[in-house]
Amino acid sequence: MAEEAARRAVAELPLLRTAAGPRDREGWAARLKEEYRALIQYVENNKRADNDWFRLESNAEGTRWFGRCWYVHELLKYEFAIEFDIPVTYPATAPEIAIPELDGKTAKMYRGGKICLSDHFKPLWARNVPKFGLAHLMALGLGPWLAVEIPDLVAKGIIQHKEKAPADGTLQLAACRWGL
Questions:
Q1: Pick from 26, 113, 120, 152: most CB atoms within 10 A?
Q2: Side by side, which strands form the sheet with 64-73?
Q3: CA 175: distance to chain centroid?
Q4: 83: alpha, beta or left? (left if phi > 0; alpha if psi -120 to 50)
Q5: Which of 169, 30, 130, 146 is nearest to 78 (CA)?
Q6: What is the pLDDT along the chain (180 residues), one digit of tens a residue?
Q7: Pairing label, strands 76-85, 64-73
Q8: What is the DSSP letter of 15?
Q9: Which residues are catalytic?
Q10: DSSP letter string over 19-85?
């Protein structure tokens, strides 16, 4: 069912045409316009389907991206900062998305909090260069990764919802000092 939903989401995304990366100044400007159009379309589609789950923005050159993503598990919203750089060999090479606050908490992550997409997503990306872009990265890369990893991390007690976790140790320390 989730696989079918992903296929539908991707089928609604425009395919990109410009095969240019950050090194190609004129081509990169055209590619960046296509990227923004696809991302805007993906976000609009998600909002219509009541499935809004990320926000992204970039630096002026479109080479560094950052934002937030969230995943709702058992009616609790888990929110994370995300970031990635566009590789110089883009679009031949897919960007590596990092979730720094989850660094070292799952085996499906590389140093620096970069999520592992090598087994499933990267071969798909390679078959679809230059048609896939950042919207496809979110839909077929980060989205499925969150759907698998966040429930697992919650079940193992590795991450907790912010409302369930103590805000900091000061309240506990004060309680100990006063014998409470």
A1: 113
A2: 54-58, 64-73, 76-85
A3: 39
A4: beta
A5: 146
A6: 567 776 787 789 999 999 999 999 899 999 999 999 999 999 999 999 999 999 999 999 999 999 999 999 999 999 999 999 999 999 999 999 999 999 999 999 988 999 999 888 999 999 999 999 999 999 999 999 999 999 999 999 999 988 865 555 444 443 434 444
A7: antiparallel
A8: P
A9: 116
A10: ---TTSHHHHHHHHHHHHHHHHHHHHHHHHTT---EEEEE-TTSSEEEEEEEEEETTEEEEEEEEEE
**What's the rounded Cα separation, in Å, for the pair 57 and 74?**
28
- Coil/strand/helix, residue 98: strand
The burial class, CB within 10 Å (0-12 / 13-18 / 19+), for 79 is: middle
Q: Where do runs of H (alpha helix) occur along 62-180?
A: 121-127, 134-137, 143-155, 170-177
Sole residue written with tokens 């907790």: 160
Helix (H, G, I), strand (E, B) or coil at 86: coil
